[in-house]
Amino acid sequence: MTVSVPLSSIKDTIPSGSILHLTQTIVIPANRSYMYIANGEVKKLKNYNTVDIYQPYCTIHLHKEHTQTRIINPDYFKITKIEEWVRDFGSIFNSNNRFVKHVKTRFFKTIMRNNQGPSIVMHATILTLHSSKQPNVKELVCGHWNDPHEIEPLTLKEMKSALGKLIIINATKAKKI
Predict the structure, then answer these.
(1) Confidence of residue 48 (pLDDT cuts 50, 70, 90)
(2) CB 150 within 8 A of CB 120
(3) Which of 44, 103, 124, 163 could disulfide-link 108, Cβ–Cβ 3.0 to 4.6 Å?
(4) pLDDT over 60 at 97, yes or no
(5) Model pTM?
(6) Coil, strand, or helix at residue 20?
(7) Where are the domains of the chain?
(8) How many DSSP H helices and E strands does the chain contain?
(9) Which of 124-149 are b and which e, b meaning 16 or more Cβ less than 10 Å from the residue's Cβ?
(10) How far apart are alpha carbons 135 and 47 in whole angstroms?
(11) Sign of torsion, CA 55 60 170 4?
């Protein structure tokens, strides 16, 4: 007999009002509003090859793009809201998919032309952030991609593995920030 155990989500382990501590400076390049974080490091932006999307990773976001480079300084951020979503991106090889533009092999171009290929799903947890010192910081989005039948919510342990010591989450309510 198989017993189904409900998966716990980040919302079950991090209460709204918890504190996120950014321990190092993050530089956001001009004409961008986010940076990738994986294995405790900020990753360079280059197409979609920056991180292994099938492993937990995060992006830290500002409210909007800017024509100049901006900096997020080490700080304590209050987590004001936690949301989770699952999005099915359909066939990853569909010719309308923006990821396909970066695929160069004949094999993938043939699959793309025939509109074939597996579906891919992303499960994400969005932490809305607040700091009175840095109101331009919007959110931390963490997630991973997988087959629709195998996708599961990130655990706190997986999120922490993506963030490493760059961002530390204190999963208890803050008194005041």
Answers:
(1) low
(2) no
(3) 103
(4) no
(5) 0.76
(6) strand
(7) 10-173
(8) 3, 10
(9) bbbbbbbbeebeebbbbbbbbbeeee
(10) 28
(11) negative
